[in-house]
Amino acid sequence: MAERLATLVGIYALLGLGYQIVFGQLRALNLAQGALFGVGAYATALTAPYLGPLALLVAPFVAAAAAALAAPPMLRLQSHYFALATLAFASLINLVAVNAEDLTGGANGLVGFGMSLPRGTILAVAVWLVVAAAVIAYSWVFAGAMGEKARLLRDAPLVAASVGIDAALWRFLAFVAGGACAGLAGGFSAALTGVVSPEVTGFPVMLLCLTAVVVGGTRHPLGAVLGAAVAVLLPELFRGLQGSWLLAYAAATLAVVLWAPEGLAGLFMRRRALPIPLAATPVSGGRRLALDHVSKRFGGVEALSDVSLTVDRGEIVGLIGPNGSGKTTLLNAIGGLEPADFGTITIDSMHLERLPAHAIARHGIGRTFQTPIEGETRGAGLARALATGAAFLLLDEPAAGMTDRERELLAGQLRGLRRDRGILLVDHDVELLTRVCDRLVCLDGGKVIATGSPLQVRADPRVRASFLGVPA
Amino acid sequence: MAYALVALGFVLALNASGAVNFAHGDLVVLGGAVAVLLAAWLGLPGFLLLPLVALALAGAGVLAAHVAILPLARRPPEASFVATIALAAMIEQTLTVTMGAAPRTAPPFLGSGAVTIAGVPLGLQPLAIVIVGAILVVALWFLLERTQVGRRMRAVAADRHMARAVGIPVRRYVTLSLALSGALAGIAGFLLGHQFLVTPTQGAGHMLKAYIAVALGGWGSVPGALIGALAIGLFETFVSAGIGDAWASAALYVAVLLVLTLRPRGLFGEPVGQRA
User: A48-52, A378-382, B234-238 — which one is most confidently predicted on average?
Assistant: First the structure.
């Protein structure tokens, strides 16, 4: 019994590991993994009478071939279309399994091939040797540069393309390799049970695989093994619950998605995460950047009118306001690109307002711009500003064009940078500003109309009227 | 026509949350199950049960929004895919445990007889499905295109950052969309439940058909979903009459793969822009 369970855990671990390549590394929601498992099971069952134990080796090739055949049209598709296409592909396999009775034995399935396949301890050892090899291969492949490339493909596909990573080739290889793992797992499961029926191609297998990987951890090399162990052993523990163990299991999956997105493996291994090395440069210089009654005119237009504000080291100040309210002009005035007409700009007691831009930079003010330089990734501007060792950062819409996930990463980085720097941050994403900023300053028509905590400023009726476009 | 209700609810949830609600099919089944239970308890006629079922499932939609969609709004769409898949499994298992795996029959809407109109005998239930469906489709169109609430729902669907920036409470509108989506699913489940019975495991099938209808009709397009659903209904009826149920489904899946290969953004394109 224990041996059988151990073998089963190994089989699901292998299935899940293949799934991690596609779903975890490339974040492609492939819903055909369960069906490919079934393809492997049928391949082994059908060839076992002729090939004996070698039939197990047929399984990964047949499943990989099926994946390769189906892949070209599907891999061009965007996330949800990809999920649908793989689901349709899986449903087709399931229909064939049920209805092609001459080949698959129809709903009754295939039996009597088990004699020619390894069983018992030999099977368990074989399964776990394969799992160990696969885990080692997986962690070796995704540890170094390949892992970085996969991360880039997942989080910033456009940037990945711009640095020469062939996304289509990656997805194809991942899909086929994942399919091969599923096929081999299916072959092993045929050997374990001695029966292959259409259920092995059904959606419940896919569901089990998906939830196991999510619960265990979608990318960690041991995630699939942990998930498989939970998926197989939990029902044994909850035998008394009868049918409702699946309910408990689904609830557990939901909980993991909500509260532990890196899965169980992530919970155990969290400490090993590398810190973002952005804050490494030591920072020296003044403590407080202060603007006092700063004004700036372009012809007859008052771009900045009597603006006073301070940014201390260790705080993030958000600058909000409608388009044309003077946010970028203010950053340019501090940085010396468009010197102020009136007023003073100081770091501690050092006056900056009459200095040229390069000198201001040497006094510890780093700046990023709205438009990134062609060929650079988005973080490059920030990295460049940091490399100067600036104590104060002026960031002009760093989150523009970012996905929600990238915004989260940026927010984390900014919190890290705040420790010994002062940051003046311009952005349109009020939610992001509210989460990362200590204070907000709202500009309208070149004037400061509100300043205070994010919640105070957002609740201010004048801010709502000017920025959110609703009457006060 | 009932497919159209399923697909419309699906597309509403999709637009609001930007992610596929895999539990939608199970909400349909839940609608059927609630109808069965309410009919047993209250013994009301079908047309009085309808608003109760819709209300109950609107509640379920709100619950789904708060459990599996809103908390994950800032994560990649795959997170809520997985969360709703888990939710779907939970609904399915709960139903299996509480009502058993055996199929049940939902009460008819008006009656199970037939009427003869212009010499053609028509079943009351199919007739009811068509009429209720048509009324709801028109009502939904009116809501989305002719009211402030609908305009805001479409704004949230089109660009949630922009919608938030102009002061629309995005979370509230996502919840509202999910409630409407749930109500439509419930009504569809109730109406389908009389003719095609209610079994806990049907959810995936409903979901797949709605998914196909929406993908073919154009991701996020409400009229597209309607046309897609009607097309699937006609396709199934005629093809399965010709070659049998199983091969009709197979032909449908092959057709889907073909369409996606030739037109990667659905038959009518994608009106709301990319949602990578």
Answer: A48-52
- pLDDT at residue A441, as a whole number: 92
Across the interface, do A430 and B90 touch by the CB < 8 Å criterion? no
- Fold of the A280-466 domain: Rossmann fold (3.40.50)
Number of H helices, E strands in chain A: 21, 12
Task: In whole angstroms, give the CA distance from residue A129 to residue A315.
Answer: 54
DSSP 8-state assignment for residue A198? G
CB of B7 within 8 Å of a chain A CB? The answer is no
Q: In whole angstroms, what is the distance from residue B163 CA to residue B159 CA?
A: 6
Asked if the C-beta of B155 comes within 8 angstroms of chain A's C-beta atoms, the answer is no
Average pLDDT, chain A: 81
Please report the ipTM that was assigned to this predicted complex: 0.77
Instruction: Give the residue on A whose Cα is nearest the Cα of B86.
Output: A250
Q: How many CA atoms lie within 13 A of A244 on its CB side?
A: 7
- Record the tokens describing residue B110, joined without a space: 């008006």
Residues of A numbered 394-413 whose beta carbons fall under 8 angstroms of chain B's beta carbons: which are they?
403-405, 407-408
Distance from CA of B87 to the nearest CA of A (A): 7
Angle formed by the axes of helices B2-17 and B170-196, nearest 10° = 160
Mutate one of B20, B78, B92, B274 to test the A interface: name it (highest A CB count within 10 A).
B78
- Chain A contact for B163 (CB, 8 A cutoff): no
Alpha carbon of A404: minimum distance to chain B alpha carbons (Å) = 5
**Domain extent listing, chain A:** 2-272, 280-466
Name the residue range of residue B141's domain. 2-200
Residue A395 CB-density burial (10 A; 0-12 exposed, 13-18 middle, 19+ buried): buried
Instruction: Give CATH for domain A2-272.
Output: 1.10.3470
pTM (2 d.p.): 0.67
